[in-house]
Amino acid sequence: MNRVATGSELTASIAHEVMQPLTGMVSSANAGLRWLSGEKPDVDKVRAVLSQIVAAGHRTAEVVRAIRAVFKRETVNYQPVEMNRLILEVLDLVKGDLLEHGVSVEMRLNESLPTIVGDPIQLQQVVLNLVINAIDAMSSLSGEARAVRVRTDIEEGGIGISVEDTGPGVTPEILDQMFKPLFSTKTQGMGLGLAICRSIVEAHHGTISAAHHQPHGLIVKLYLPVNHPGG
């Protein structure tokens, strides 16, 4: 019975993770059709909404690929990765989400950051998940500044990456549980995202952790080694 219950929850979580971007794609497509059907089609708005659809499509594919990688334990496709460039690509993917929720981005990217060895698709999934979580964490704020702060730096033997939000933060109990499989504070989710992030980071011989940020908010930190044995 426990296995059946867990399977049901897992299925609901996967459906939720995939349905979010799909719902956004449908809404964006409908908006694009309305702008095209007017007497004077608004080409600029249609172009912008098509970009949002493409970004949502990428997000859906990345979610499916990450889930498949976790359950099938696919071999990591190691290659040189420039994390600063990868982070900028992720922020471009979520541009629509940032605008929709009124979230600003503050970046402090170390220009001397060394290239690391890793799977760019999986690492992109980690950063994407953390940024989306940061945006979601601030959805309840009213009349307060919303900002996602992304930072990279050089650390001994590797690089450090942090994603910080200005949301309300979480309780100590949640902080201790948030990276465990099937744990979530969301009513429609079971915490696949952060569990997948941890799995990917550990497959790259790195670490991931979260901490409170003063005066409020949450900061998630990654450490990834520059060189490590593949496989």
Question: Any key phrases for this structure?
Answer:
globular; two-stranded antiparallel ribbon; alpha+beta; 52% helix; 7 strands; 231 residues; Four Helix Bundle (Hemerythrin (Met), subunit A); Heat Shock Protein 90; disordered N terminus; single chain; 19% strand; five-stranded mixed sheet; 7 helices
3D architecture notes:
With 231 residues, this protein is of the alpha+beta class. Helix content is 52%, strand content 19%. It folds into two domains: 2-72, Four Helix Bundle (Hemerythrin (Met), subunit A), CATH 1.20.120; 79-225, Heat Shock Protein 90 (2-Layer Sandwich). It has seven helices and seven strands; from the N terminus they run ααβααββαββααββ. A hairpin with a 2-residue loop joins strand 4 and strand 5 (158-165). It is globular, with a radius of gyration of 18 Å. It starts with a helix and ends in a 6-residue tail after the last strand. Mean pLDDT is 79; it is low at 1-6 and 187-191.
